[in-house]
Amino acid sequence: MKFFIDTADLAEIHEAKDMGVLDGVTTNPSLMRVASERAGKPLDFFDHIAKICNLVSGDVSAEVTAVTFDEIMKQGRELATIADNVVVKVPLILDGLKAINALLQEGIRSNCTLCFSPTQALLAAKAGAAYISPFIGRVDDISSDGMKLVQEIIEIYTIYGYETEVLAASIRHPMHVLESALMGAHVATMPLGVIKKLVSHPLTDIGLNKFMSDWEKFEQQSDTPQS
Ligand code: G3P
User: Fold this and answer.
1) Beta-carbon contacts of residue 174 (< 8 Å; ≥ 6 apart)
2) 54 by DSSP, 3-state: which?
């Protein structure tokens, strides 16, 4: 399973990369706003995405901010010039599907975002999206089952052999990652906080403390002169 970080914050991307587990990055307009606020200055979108693309060798999703075919195509083509690892994030709307297919004809890969139903995901695969992004947490937020959405997408894609990768998104906690992994989602994108939570286990901490204190006692014994 590939791990992407869901952020546009360069410091967070650096931190995840240093952990040795990072395969790529997903961004969106809201995450750009957060990164800009944290930077304390307006960020140049293209320049910022270029910096992220330089940081990681894997795919970096950069989202269009358009809802018409022509405008999505224009922005998609521009974004694709930034780097080879840019994937154009396109909303799951009629013009978006049309653009995903047209971008593919030009060799430009897309991540179809804002997916909330398995039949939407079926359309994205038929249009030729490289990735489909089901938003797990946002489905859970409306008292529905985000994991069931992922399960059904994987089932449909497996039956028909679609190559579109399932990118579990809107991940809020480690159980979303565990269940996505068990279901065979190709990618999980998550905030830095969730990646860090995956590391922690109380028994690891208890075991490590015991090893450290026993080692200290062992060294004290070794330092004590034998009579
Ligand atoms: O990248 C999009 C997605 O992961 C959004 O997550 O937490 O805003 O629902 P969230």
Assistant:
1) 194, 197, 198
2) helix
Catalytic residue among 2, 17, 74, 89: 89
138: CA distance to ligand 1 center in Å?
8
The rounded mean pLDDT for the chain is: 97
Side-chain half-sphere exposure of 63, counting CA atoms within 13 A: 21
**Average pLDDT value for residue range 156-165:** 98
3-class secondary structure, 143: coil
- Note if 98 is an active site residue: no
H/E element holding 174? helix 174-183
Residue 171 Cα to ligand 1 midpoint, Å, equals 7
Would the pTM count as exceeding 0.85?
yes
Q: What are the tens digits of pLDDT across the range 186-214?
A: 999 999 999 999 999 999 999 999 999 99
DSSP labels for 179-218? Answer: HHHHHT-SEEEE-HHHHHHHH--HHHHHHHHHHHHHHHHH
Q: How far is CA 219 from CA 39, 82, 213, 223, in A?
A: 47, 56, 10, 6
Contact 177, 136 (CB under 8 A): no
- Say yes or no to pLDDT of 227 above 70: no
- Under 8 Å CB-to-CB from 112, ≥6 apart: which residues? 89, 90, 91, 92, 96, 97, 100, 121, 124, 127, 129, 131, 132, 133, 164
